[in-house]
Design a protein that fits this description.
Blueprint lengths: L9 H10 L4 H14 L15 E3 H4 L3 H4 L4 H8 L6 E3 H10 L6 H12 L9 H12 L5 H15 L9 H10 L12
Antiparallel strand pairs: 1-2
Helix pairs in contact: 2-6, 5-7, 7-10, 8-9
Length: 187
């Protein structure tokens, strides 16, 4: 009798379960999704592809990402190598963090990185302007954009320095939970 080769070893599945919110079945389903994006690049068995990374352009075509106005920045934040490529570990981590099962404080950490468009570890007025443009498709007038930016800073900037630190951001999202609505994916 031939033995069926599994995608992961038991140890690998245990490790993935320990560091994500997913069951073994969900981890396997996500690997199949990763594999299906580029079957000519990603082998059927994980042991054969520890160093395989897919271009972010391929991953951005997934329907659940494509509909998110922040999908490009989300992919950049979760891509460990910063070379516009994503490993399966990055892919699994991204889906885990964006899952409805992930605790709010952990989502907030990554959401802050996504909304910090200029990557200065603060959310400043220019970041809020980019956020609004992505959310509204440039439908707001300049005056409306300024009004929203001023309101965000007024409500969230606890120390009055004109920008939101991570602490300011956490405080703000506890008062406006809908703000995090764009930061989830269903698998």
């Amino acid at each position: 009798m031939g033995s069926k080769q599994s995608i992961f070893t038991e140890e690998q599945l245990d490790e993935y379960q320990d560091c994500t919110v997913f069951t073994r079945k969900e981890i396997l389903r996500l690997y199949h999704r990763y594999h299906s994006l580029a079957p000519e690049i990603v082998p059927c068995h994980f042991n054969d592809c520890a160093d395989i990374k897919l271009p972010l352009e391929l991953i951005s075509e997934m329907p659940e990402l494509k509909e998110n106005p922040f999908h490009q920045k989300v992919l950049q934040v979760f891509s460990e190598d910063k070379q516009n490529k994503m490993s399966f570990n990055d892919f699994l981590n991204m889906f885990s963090i964006l899952s409805d099962l992930t605790p709010q404080h952990l989502k907030a950490h990554y959401a802050f990185k996504v909304y910090d468009f200029n990557s200065d570890n603060f959310i400043c007025q220019s970041d809020v302007e980019v956020m609004l443009a992505k959310l509204t498709g440039d439908e707001l007038s300049d005056e409306e954009v300024q009004l929203v930016c001023n309101k965000v800073m007024e409500e969230g900037d606890l120390d009055g320095d004109g920008k939101l630190s991570f602490t300011d951001f956490e405080y703000m999202i506890t008062r406006a939970p809908d703000f995090m609505s764009t930061f989830h994916i269903r698998i």
